[in-house]
Amino acid sequence: MLLHVPTFSLAAAAYQDSPWHRLAPRARLGVSLILVLGVAVTPARLELWGIYALFLLLLIVVSQVSPVTMVKRLGVELVFVGVLLLSILWSGQGTPLVSLGVLQITQDSLARFGGVLAKALLSLVSLNLLTLTTPAPRILQALEQLRFPRLLVRVLELMLRFLAVLVDELGSMKRAAQARRAGTLLGWGVAGNILGSLFLRTYGRGERVHLAMQARGFKGSFQSTGVPPLTVIDGLAVLGTVGFVVGVLLWQGVR
Amino acid sequence: MKPLVVESLFYTYPDGTQALRGVSFALTAGQNVALVGPNGSGKSTLLLHLNGLLEAERGTLEVGGQPLKPQNMDFVRRYVGLVFQNPEDQLFMPTVQEDVAFGPQNLGLAGTELTNRVRECLEVVGLEPARFLERPCFNLSLGEKKRVALAGVLAMQPEVLVLDEPSAGLDPRGRRRLIRLLQDFPQTKLIATHDLDLALETCSETILLERGLVITSGPTSQLLRDRVLLETHGLELPLSLQG
Amino acid sequence: MGVGLLWLGMHIPDGFLSLPVTALTYVLAVALVFLALRQTEQAYADKLVPLMGVSAAFIFAAQMINFPVLGGTSGHLLGGTLAGILLGPWAGTLAMVVVFIVQTLLFQDGGLTALGANILNMGLLGTFIGYYLYRTVRFTLGDQHWWVMALATGFASWCSVMLAAVAVALQLSWSGTVVLGVVLPAMLVVHSLIGIGEAVLTVAVVSFLWRTRPDLLFDPPPFTKKELT
Q1: Is residue C226 one of the residues assigned to a domain?
Q2: Is C225 part of any domain?
């Protein structure tokens, strides 16, 4: 169920070279976030989503991220949001289109399902573009450079690292439980103990990782390999994206 | 000057377990010392004290002639390099290159000096830079991970190298390679291990620790031949001496 | 519509809140985060930050695990009270904020425009009120026994879920999305059940820590040996 997490920490296309890769991580973060925000505030209309999709497609071509990698990652992520999406699909009231016993797909819910799916897809593509090309420490550094509160950045950084650890530990605990034939259904008490020891193990591993970092002279912040100053191109990329989002909004307002 | 002096060190964990109960020893420059003892004898706890990761409850520690204090932590962390038992605890940057660079970056290295340092250290541990620099850390083999972890510590150019169970989990060839590396490194070394054959081959002195106390210390060749002593303390004769 | 909301549970998606409600909740949420940052930085202990990270990761993962509630509805751990009990109200709020940010950005679970409301509902109500309810019950009944802690934890977690449900209903009705009279009773019925799941899971995790590492709780029980510093 949590299989996607390691893939998230994996910046598979981080070491290629392309105009997109040459943007400072700050600028890439900016472009991605502006696009997500744009998707969120854009009214649910097919043609507007089409324009966003084209824009994102253009970015994918420019960044030379392999479409296969992108689709694979999207697949994993969609399985993950799938539960939520399906619950929308079965939820509506109105003209029923298909019914399976108590469960009904209605026109209303189908439209909402499509809407949420489209928005989720567009946002995910935009964020995947960022995470595929930019290793997590760079993203966090960029957040710090953008004056995001340092404490939050550190918690964020540790959370992402612990999440990978958690998945590791969960996997090995599951195997150990299976090896002892612990059945499929666990009692509340056992489940509580599993959750509790999962927490402790993760904490223990986290403590050791932190110690190992300190042992190599870590003093609370990642040393950047020199913060590259923002170039004109970085500025243009961010401004261009803002222009695009505002342009789409205005265009649909005019019509 | 002794690079590392430990004087009656005490440490109790928050849950009340007494891990160290007055440990004293000193390392001579260039010497290799093995730290042996059964599980739970306090070996790992002791190692964490040596570069200031745990604060002693009582007792003193001197590193490179300087007392261990918060003010000279930078010096201490550079002087004593600690290689953790489980490389998973140590490797966390996305690629080999970045992980090996992590330590020297914290020391302020940058640019070509940094890249050269990373390449050198990878070569020292027998990983071709061309093949390994860009590899992601998570899909290396355990042996490779251990060597990257070692390179990451060597990159800080420590005077004292402290290793926790360096041979655990290695296959025979990996272990042999490690022994050769340990014999070649010029640094002063403290090696905590259950692998008494490795101790015999690499270390001139041995310290036997049990339940937070130094039971005895002396030349490895003598100490590890003493069957009665070893068996009383949960160890057994090295395989090469069983005959 | 009402049924749809129940399915979606507590995380409000994009497009459900009106502009004034969005703006107001954002302002309040930013103020809350700002205050929490100030408070936590003052009490900045090196030990607290890793614990915040692991709590956030844990709650993030736990929120993905759905448990079935009556009639095919599913709920999941919200974790606000758990964060409060582990980290105290301020640091707990920050851990929840980090969870929401990652969820919103990466998984589109809870909309970006509703982030402010979600932080208020589950951070402020879940963590703050949850924590103080727990504290009040635990210290009123005497701080010695496991069952007091379990009772306090369970009661606080259940209440925090109910409060959050009321808050969601109010925000939606103020936004003109739903009629309060229809949604509120429905939300309360479903969430009184979700709250039981929340209480059971929170008690399970906290009990485990109470027995094994009580020093990790924000208010360690009296039998804990103080860490030597």
Answers
A1: no
A2: no
Task: Kindly tell me if the per-residue pLDDT of C52 is higher than 50.
Answer: yes
For chain C, list the contacting chains (3+ Cβ pairs, <8 Å).
A, B
Structure confidence by residue, pLDDT tens digits, C4-27:
344 445 667 666 677 888 889 999
Is B183 inside any structural domain? no
Query: Where do we find the tokens 């930085």?
Result: C41
Q: How, if at all, do strands B66-67 and A103-106 pair? A: unpaired
In a domain, residue C223? The reply is: no
Backbone torsions φ then ψ of B7, nearest 5 degrees: -125, 120
Residue B205, phi then psi, degrees to nearest 5: -120, 155
pLDDT of amino acid C8: 43
Structure-model confidence comparison of residues A246 and A17, the more confident one: A246
Q: Do C95 and A196 touch (CB under 8 A)?
A: no
CATH code for the domain of B197:
3.40.50.300
Report CB contact under 8 Å: C60, A41.
no
More reliable by pLDDT, A85 or A244: A244
Question: Cα dist. C96→A60, C33, C80, C145 in Å?
Answer: 33, 10, 7, 28
Q: pLDDT-based confidence at A3, cuts 50/70/90?
A: very low
Helix axes C130-140, C146-174, angle to 10 degrees: 150
**Residue in this structure with the two tokens 């004292």, named with its chain if needed:** B160
Examine residue B192 and state whether it is found in any structural domain, yes or no: yes
Domain assignment present for B123: no
- Digit-coded pLDDT (tens) for B67-108: 988 888 889 999 999 999 988 888 877 678 888 998 998 888
How much is the average pLDDT of B126-153? Answer: 89
Q: How many domains does chain C have?
A: 1
Domain count, chain B: 1
- Cα atoms found within 13 Å of the Cα of residue A66, Cβ hemisphere only: 10
**Taking residues C103-127, what's their average pLDDT?**
77
Q: Is the pLDDT of residue B158 over 50?
A: yes
List chain B residues with CB under 8 Å of A10. Answer: 94, 136, 138
Residues 120-139 of B with CB under 8 A from A: 134, 136, 138
**Cβ partners under 8 Å of residue C94, min gap 6:** A151, A152, A155, C33, C36, C37, C40, C52
Q: Is residue C187 part of a domain?
A: yes
Check: complex ipTM more than 0.90: no
On chain B, the residues whose CB falls within 8 A of the CB of A9 are: 94
Residue ranges of domains in chain A: 1-147, 149-224
In a domain, B94, yes or no: no
- Are A136 and B94 a contacting pair at CB < 8 A? yes
Domain that includes residue B227, residue range: 1-64+188-243
Q: C132-142, pLDDT tens digit by residue?
A: 999 999 988 88
